[in-house]
Write a structure and sequence with these properties.
Blueprint: E1 2-5, E2 21-25, E3 32-36, H1 45-52, E4 56-62, H2 65-79, E5 83-89, H3 98-110, E6 118-123, H4 125-137, E7 144-148, H5 151-157, E8 162-167, E9 170-177, E10 182-185, H6 195-212, H7 214-221, H8 224-228, H9 232-252, H10 267-276, H11 283-300, H12 306-318, H13 331-340, E11 350-356, E12 359-364, H14 368-376
Parallel strand pairs: 3-10, 4-5, 4-6, 6-7, 7-10
Antiparallel strand pairs: 1-12, 2-3, 8-9, 11-12
Helix pairs in contact: 5-6, 5-9, 6-7, 6-9, 6-11, 10-11, 10-13, 11-12, 11-14
This protein binds nicotinamide-adenine-dinucleotide and zinc ion (ZN).
Length: about 375
């Protein structure tokens, strides 16, 4: 077994503040700002106009989000001096594919977008990943803005520049690294998000806390009710903190040569559970189960204390997330799905294993029987 540790992270102490927060993603000439502020989408002109005044803009959203926030965002873009056209894609992961992109390219040609025009993604990770990919490839690349509307998109997919679509052969098999020019996050949008989707985002938040931020973990433990309500002011801080953590990782390893892999905590197991369940287990739910398996593996290998694994489990359960695979899923199919995972490197499967709450290692060469035991322990 070979492990290397995450770099010590020095973001400074976490301060609880309930006004707007700004996070910088430092990527040289591709740097950008993330503004997290409740109500920002109703007063976004000062943020949008430096980018879009006098430009053609394709606003891309999905069929659930369009009736909720389409008019507000379209209105803010128009007030910012943009010439806006709206594209509405059908909601759902099954539409995150190339033929949906083809429809979007056609809309963009029809609206007369040039290389200096903008795309704007308004929605969850599906809309963000696909809009980013279309922006990366239309006329060899046009700038785009992310306005994430799910908790998962706010804390994870809208930051970091991974864009792409699925193929029938697997998820996210076609894509590009393409950073947004700006990310605007309005936590008020969480008010309309179904609780199951909130929980899926919470799984990624627990992930950040376990791998990078013990203080955040403690804050989550003592505020479960506010997280499930959802308490918008509280989320403003939590989302900003997660964006800070992701920005730190991405700024140090934009294209996942090393450190960025740490963000896959719970995902090697989780992707397999998700796939074997034929996606009836949601991504965040699968990540929660995957984190439980990874923690068990780390305990069995003597890397992580049982009490810390129990703390993680209690938090996941308090948030209403599963920590065991649904009955009947089967150990062998999960093991087989893992060996197909595209994150498998030439040196074998990579596991992110916690060392303590707030610190994790990137590990290779773990013996298969130990991995299988961790899966079996969480299957019924
Ligand atoms: N690029 C990355 O780094 C990255 C990271 C993690 C996940 N992802 C991708 O993100 C996708 C999952 O994202 P997701 O969970 O946001 O899924 P999603 O985009 O499908 O959104 C989930 C559901 O919520 C609806 N919705 C969105 N905002 C809403 C709101 N404010 N109120 C009510 N309903 C709303 C959507 O219409 C959809 O039905 C996956 O395709 C995954 O591969 C990408
Ligand atoms: Zn994830």
């Amino acid at each position: 077994m070979f492990c290397f540790g995450s770099a010590e992270i020095s973001l400074g102490a976490f301060k609880y503040m309930s006004n707007g927060r700004q996070v910088d993603v430092a990527l040289g000439e591709r740097s950008y700002k993330i503004q997290v502020e409740s109500g920002i989408m109703a007063r976004a002109v000062s943020w949008l106009s430096p980018w879009v005044t006098g430009k053609k803009v394709q606003l891309i959203t999905d069929s659930n989000v369009a009736p909720l926030y389409g008019d507000t965002v379209s209105g803010e873009l128009t007030s910012s001096g943009a010439d806006v056209a709206l594209s509405v894609i059908p909601a759902g992961e099954e539409h995150k594919r190339l033929d949906t992109c083809a429809g979007l390219y056609a809309d963009m040609v029809r609206h007369g977008l040039s290389r200096s025009s903008f795309a704007v993604a308004l929605g969850g990770g599906v809309t963000g990943d696909m809009t980013g990919f279309v922006a990366a490839t239309y006329m060899r690349g046009i700038p785009f803005i992310q306005i994430p509307s799910t908790l998962l998109a706010m804390v994870d997919s809208s930051v970091g520049g991974k864009t792409g679509v699925d193929l029938p052969e697997g998820k996210n098999l076609v894509g590009a690294f393409w950073q947004p020019s700006l990310v605007l996050i309005d936590p008020c949008m969480l008010r309309s998000l179904p609780l199951r989707e909130i929980r899926c985002g919470l799984a990624e938040i627990v992930k950040y806390a376990v791998i990078l931020d013990a203080e955040l973990f403690t804050l989550l433990e003592s505020n479960v009710e506010r997280l499930l309500q959802p308490d918008i002011d509280f989320y403003t801080d939590i989302i900003a903190r997660c964006c800070e953590l992701k920005a730190y990782v991405v700024a140090n390893d934009e294209t996942e040569q090393g450190l960025r892999a740490i963000l896959n905590y719970g995902h090697t197991f989780g992707h397999a559970v998700e796939a074997v369940s034929q996606f009836s287990v949601g991504h965040g739910e699968a990540v929660a189960i995957g984190m439980a398996m990874a923690a068990d593996l780390a305990v069995a290998l003597g890397l992580f204390r049982q009490e810390a694994a129990d703390r993680q489990e209690r938090l996941l359960q308090a948030l209403g997330l599963p920590v065991r695979a649904p009955a009947g899923l089967g150990v062998a199919p999960i093991m087989a799905a893992m060996s197909n995972d595209k994150k498998k490197s030439s040196k074998g499967l990579v596991f992110i294993l916690p060392q303590s709450i707030g610190k994790a290692d990137i590990c290779r060469g773990i013996d298969i029987p130990s991995v299988e035991a961790a899966v079996r322990g969480r299957c019924d």
